[in-house]
Structures are given as C-alpha cells and as structure tokens.
Amino acid sequence: MGAVGARGRRIEPLSASMHVAGPVATIALSGELDRSSIGRFWRFLLPAHRPGIDRVVLDLDRLAFLDSAGLVEILRAAGDLRRLGAELVVARPTRSTRRLLEVTGVAGRLSIEPPLRSLDDVAPRAS
Questions:
Q1: Can you list the domains of the chain with their CATH numbers?
Q2: In sequence order, which residues have a C-beta less than 8 Å from that of residue 71 and are 6 or more positions away?
Q3: Where does the pLDDT of residue 8 fall: very low under 50, low under 70, confident under 90, or very high at 90 and above?
Q4: How far apart are CA 65 and CA 31, in angstroms?
Q5: Percentages helix, strand, coil for the chain, rounded to the nearest 5?
Q6: Taking burial as the number of CB atoms within 10 A of a residue's CB, which of 4, 46, 51, 60 is the most buried?
Q7: What is the pTM of this model?
Q8: What percent of the chain has pLDDT over 70?
C-alpha cells in the first residue's frame, strides 16, 4: 500500500521483477516512475547492463504513473544500452503511458511493442 500524495492520489512505490532468458532481460515495472523513483529505476535496470544481454524489455503493463522525469530516464537507458550494442524495448505501455509517448514525440525514438497506433485509434470515439 502506498502513501497518499498532496492531491489525495495514492502513491505506489516503484517496484520491479526481472527475468533473463538467453540474451533477453525482461524488467516488469509496477508503481510510479517519476522524479522521486529514478534511483530505484536505475537499481532495477543496472543488472541488465551485462555481457550477453543484447535486448532489455521494459514491461510497463503494471506501471501506474510515468512523468517526464521518468520518461527522460527511459530515453537515457535506451541510449546507454545502444552504446553497449544492446536494445531497449518498451513493452505493453498502458494507455496513459502510450499517450505520453505519443504527445511528447518520444514514440519515434524508442522501440515499442506492440507498436503504437495513432491517438485517433486509441481515443474513444464519440457516438
């Protein structure tokens, strides 16, 4: 159970689990990735920065919140891995995360699975 923030929103601490299968490390994040949890994000990610891992999958299906500071760190991680000859893949982003990726223009700078559809396809249509 998380603390309650200033606006009455429950704050869920960032947590993660990692699974390695051959050259692929999958890190499933849950909770909130924001300025206050960046250090924790890197503690979860750094074990995947090792020889033999050429693909790191960030599974965001259970990520409750992502802000611009968290997004910057995901981009930084993608760049770090690229320099090491590996790839960062953002997998199963939630609806709000997909929207953030698209409206910030970051979607084109990351590998995303499944690929994002346009906001027109994601947004509910008025009847």
A1: 9-114 (3.30.750.24)
A2: 100, 101, 104, 106
A3: low
A4: 7
A5: 35, 30, 30
A6: 60
A7: 0.83
A8: 83
